[in-house]
Amino acid sequence: MIRARQLGKRFGEKRALRGVDLDVARGAFAVVTGPNGSGKTTLLRLCAGLALPTEGELEVDAPRAAVGYLAHEPLVYRELTALENLDLYGRLYHVPERRERIGMLLERFGLWEVRHDRVVSYSRGMTQRLALCRVLLHGPELLVLDEPYTALDAAGAELLDAQLTELRGARTVLISTHDPDRVAPFATQQLALA
Amino acid sequence: MEAVSRQYRVPLPALAAASLVLVTLALALIFFVAPNDADQGFSQRIFYFHVSIAFTAYACFAGGAWKALVHLWKRDPLADLESYVAVHQGLIFGTLVLVTGSIWAKISWGHWWLWSEDQLVLFLVLFLFYAAYFMLRFSVDPGPQRANLSAVYALFGVVLIPVSFLAIRIAKSFIHPIVFTRHGPNFGGWILATYCVAQAALLVLAYTLYRVELSGKRIDVRLRELSLA
Amino acid sequence: MTYAADVGALARKDLLLELRARDTLPAMLLFVVATFVVFHFALPAHSSQLAASGLLWVAILFTALLGLGRAFVPEREQRVLDGLVLAPCDRSAIWLAKSLATLAFLAAAELVALPVFALFFHGLGGATVAGVVLADLGICAVGTFLGAMAVVTRARDLLLPLLFLPLAIPIVVGGVGASVAGSPGRYLGFLALYDVLFAVLCWASFEYVVTE
Predict the structure, then answer these.
(1) Spelled out in words, what is the top-level CATH class assigned to the domain A2-192?
(2) Burial A154-168 (b: 16+ CB within 10 A, else e)
(3) Domain positions in chain A
(4) pTM score, two decimals?
(5) Could you say which of A13, A192, C162, C208 has the lowest number of CB atoms within 10 Å?
């Protein structure tokens, strides 16, 4: 599903990524590790389609509508409620049975009670859980998750574990993390960036 | 940007030589050969500079917009730099239009600025617009985003030129500036020839300067790349 | 018609954000009325009515700038724009939706501003109102577009007026012409031309402003 050859990305004169080769088959669970500044986020942004490579080739066999990207930032409007945020994304992604699906996700991630509260009042863990709802809302085939465990509290981490267990094999996952042991049970391949 | 060598058909030394020859020829024609204008006398000769510089500026802006389009459309790695340099040349020549136009106005009619001169006012607007181009460019870190924003802005510029010109024309009916009638030169004989040579000289000079600045900037970028790699 | 649906969803979001924050529209209203008062003191005793008409357009322009500067701030915070760009919708829908929302705020501000102007200075004819409508379209289309550009730069608020004013000069010419000239039709036509040309340009090139 993802195929990269000698992939590189440069911003002006700064080089963020260099010479990366990657092959992720459909249904695989690829884990990207590396120290800070090694280009994990850049690699994931490239695969999600938010950036274009400056060197090498990249093929991602998934249209925009089939990609779900979890960034460092939650990508939700702080002044809107969880429900309003997800409704917007649901409309933009043309999610069928939008309301039911939103309700189901909010409940699964423990946000049903606070669905009418503005995101600005959430804790960091709650916001991250909302971001996960956003990512999963349109049932993407390719999930690109940038350090999803970082902002999650213990309860949220367990929910994510459960979700990943469910998705393993059925979806393609590209995940970057500081804690490779956590996702080791799911991983089918690993890529270490220098 | 790496290893992209654009092969230009005309080598730079030849261009420089051609510029020198043409500019010298143009100056000779302007000051010694072209006949004196019946109304304005010797001072009218600045018209040869003023009009050719204006046209050259338009050409630079159009060139910048074209390269901008190439950048957006074909993602040519060099096009952004070429567009930037072309706009830079355009701004320089545009400033010269304002200066020569102002001098002309002072000599001919005693005022340093005339709102009735359409072209002069147009260049004032364009000066503001393209100066903002540089503010935009210097306010974004180098990279694909800066290139895209600059390119789009350059395209806006080229649409603005005719629209502004039209606006300035139709504004006159309610602004009522003091209009000085000018008898345009009769485009006959030596006057036409002198103008054509002056125009050609300035276009070649502008292109030469463009190539010079471009090669300098490319070396800059390449050096920085090498030092960071 | 999914494009229209996308634009609708995005515009709804923008209107909702403003309704929540309730800061931009009141600020624009207060600003425009304050500007009129300043104009009263700035116009010498025997200024013509026409001078005041001209200043109306200055007021509209700068009030719009106030609102436009805030247009993409919610997207800038926390890079929410990335989320919109990831969505399968056409990126120009983001621009169109934001323009329509800004247009709504500007129109709302003018619903107050124009009568106040008539109160302070002199009445406004149909041609002026038509001019205001057409000018608003151009201001919002171009201003929103430039606002998206300005918001990714370091200079941000400083840059938007610099980018916007040269492009706004034709709008001012069209608007003032419609207000004061004997035959406003020419100026209204010019405003319409401006709107069409720049709206098409904005629509076609917004993609490049938000992507690489």
Answers:
(1) alpha beta
(2) eebbebbeebbeebb
(3) 2-192
(4) 0.92
(5) A192
